[in-house]
Amino acid sequence: MSINKILENNRQWVSDKNAQDPEYFSRLAKGQQPRYLFIGCSDSRVPASGITGTGPGEMFVHRNIANLVVHTDINLLSVLQYAVEVLGVKDIMVVGHYGCGGVAAAAGTKQYGLIDNWLTNIRDVIRIHEQEFLSIENEEQRLRRLVELNVTEQVQNLAKTSIIQNAMRTENPPRLHGLVYDIADGRLKDLQLNGEQPLSGLEHIYATEAPKGADHDSSTYEGKKEDPAQEAAVTEDRLTQKS
Ligand SMILES: [Zn+2]
Fold first, then answer.
1. Domains of the chain, CATH where assigned
2. 41 is catalytic
3. Of these residues, 16, 21, 27, 45, which one is catalytic?
4. What DSSP assignment string belongs to 16-66?
5. Any bridge partners for residue 95, and if so which?
6. By the 8 A CB rule, do 91 and 36 touch?
7. Are strands 91-98 and 36-41 parallel, antiparallel or unpaired?
8. In 3D, which of 163, 172, 219 has the Cα closest to residue 196?
């Protein structure tokens, strides 16, 4: 498909949407308040909105190879912080998928380049669950299980962040979910992780607290929303400083 075909598809989509609902784009242009944050794999066979039945405005999306939550990934952390603290998303889902090439590569020994370093995060998942992983004789089943274990570990990685730990102490904490998508039949499976207590059993190692009076001290933090008036004042401040 050439880029011209992409542009032609876009024109068709715009005219279809406008025909169905003339206010569609003007409504979306006003802003977003998505309920969900989706953290999924970059795989082209896992279209985030298609498999979840969500449309524009409903889901904030972050994708990377093998849906990893890496604590030094400024991209993921920025998406997470903004989604939780500014947009106020209610449900955060890590969505893995069976047949994941990244997961399969991590289970093997062949190098693919720079990406091997990224995939080391999945080799860490194998190390943590080595006994169970090695006990599964069938290779396909072993990789399917690794996909699930990887999602479970990434949900825990979310729970280890200061962002989620602070959000969990607010009145309306987000829920964490681990899902796996099956490319072969299109179905999403809920791994039924304990989304309210994702660190259960590991608090003594990973739980942290904001210093008293800090921005994220739970007694002052309210899962804040933007105050448009204050935002305008800040913008004006910057403009004044510039001139
Ligand atoms: Zn994948």
1. 33-199+218-242 (3.40.1050.10)
2. yes
3. 45
4. HHHHH-TTHHHHHTT----SEEEEEE--TT--HHHHHT--TTSEEEEEETT
5. 40, 179
6. yes
7. parallel
8. 172
Which residue's entry shows tokens 């050439």?
A: 2
Which of 62, 100, 144, 177 does the annotation list as catalytic?
Answer: 100
Contact of 171 with 222, CB cutoff 8 Å: yes
pLDDT score for 243: 46
SS3 labels along 104-139: HHHHCCCCCCCHHHHHHHHHHHHHHCHHHHHHCCCH
Is 217 a residue of the active site? no
Catalytic-residue membership of 71: no
Neighbours of 126 (CB within 10 A): 18
H or E element, residue 3: helix 3-20
Is 100 among the residues known to form the active site?
Answer: yes
Average pLDDT over residues 208-220: 72
pLDDT band for position 211 (cuts 50, 70, 90):
confident
Instruction: Tell me, yes or no, if 169 is annotated catalytic.
Output: no
